[in-house]
Amino acid sequence: MSRLGTLGARLYRGEVGYDFVGKRKIWYGISILITITAIVGLAVRGLNMGIEFSGGAVFTTPKTSVSASEARHVAESASGGHTAVVQELGRGGLRIQISELGTKEALPVQEKLAKELDVQTSKIDTQLVGPSWGEEIASKAWQGLAIFMVLVVIYLAIAFEWRMAAAALIALIHDLTITVGVYALVGFEVTPGTVIGLLTILGYSLYDTVVVFDGLKEASKDLTKQTRFTYSEIANRSLNSTLVRSINTTVVALLPVGALLFIGGGALGAGMLNDISLALFVGLAAGAYSSIFIATPLVADLKERDPQMKALAKRVRAKRAAEAAKADAGTGQASEDPDPSAAEDGDQPTPAAAGAGQRRQPASRGRGRGRPSGKRR
Question: What are the pLDDT tens digits along the chain (377 aa)?
């Protein structure tokens, strides 16, 4: 068995473990710092909305010798200063996207692009997206996200309990905020593919969270009938038992997504992969983090406020204090109890004999008792 497999087995059996729940204030602080950074980036830089949301025009050119940077300069000059996004296509053509460009402005831009790129005007394919259609797409995206959240909360509340549903919802909002903040800081374009990626990562995040919650639900059955562990300790044991599984699942999912982002979008220049692959990559990492460091500690925090769990924690502390006092008393009594046989001889007991208690008499001392003296009559 590999070292990781051995570690996973030991974590599952509770032989080793890390106190994730006990150090939850550290994780809360880190999450708050990351979330604030994401919100500041979103407020300062904003999102680079694609034409599907903001409206605009897309010009697709045939094969040309003009570079992407030159085409971007020409497009921005022809559109009167509007920002242009240029992508190189596999067949040697260019895809030029200009946001917030009206129908009347699109034709002059098309003619100037044809002139500068030395192609016929009819060879340039032009697609226009109105702002009203973009607003409708954005509205439907928000509706889909809201419906997803509501269904998730209802399901978790029925399958588990409302505390777990609340913790899972907070973890999902945490993942969405971080992903959107990274989009704002990096400046990648937000497209319908981005929305698909966001919905996908919510499913991955919930998968890890539900796995931990299911183990916690089984481990916490009849919890109040024992006095060995508190709810937080049981939650920490459940989290450690599924830790390696969560890490393996996340790593396996991140490898192909990372290939799409860094190789497909970065090295090969397939910019259309960036929108969905970045959302998946950041969201998967944030989802794995939140399921381990946020969701379960939040459940423990909420559950420990329950009167039954407070009473259980009080009983556990009382039992441990009594056991500690008993152990201390037993150690002290053993160290103060002298050896009777040594006291009879007038010698002081040695440290080893003091801890051993009363010794047994040798069997040879009882020999000959009740026998004749051996004298012949």
Answer: 566 557 656 665 656 678 888 899 999 999 999 999 999 988 888 887 777 777 788 888 887 777 778 888 888 887 777 778 787 776 777 888 887 777 777 888 888 888 877 788 878 888 777 767 667 777 887 888 888 888 888 988 898 889 999 999 999 899 889 988 888 888 777 877 788 888 888 777 788 888 888 888 888 888 888 888 899 999 998 888 888 888 888 888 888 888 888 776 655 555 566 778 888 888 888 888 998 899 999 999 999 998 988 998 899 899 888 888 888 887 765 555 554 444 444 443 333 333 333 434 444 444 444 444 444 44
The structure's pTM equals 0.71
Residue 77 near residue 96 (C-beta atoms within 8 A) = no
* Selection from 190, 192, 205 nearest residue 152 by Cα: 205
* Ranges of each domain in the chain: 18-49+133-313, 56-129
Of the candidates 219, 213, 226, the one whose C-alpha atom is nearest the C-alpha of residue 311 is: 226
- Tell me, what amino acid is at 324? A
CATH class of residue range 18-49+133-313:
mainly alpha
Looking at domain 56-129, its CATH class is: alpha beta
Separation of alpha carbons 174 and 115, rounded Å: 49
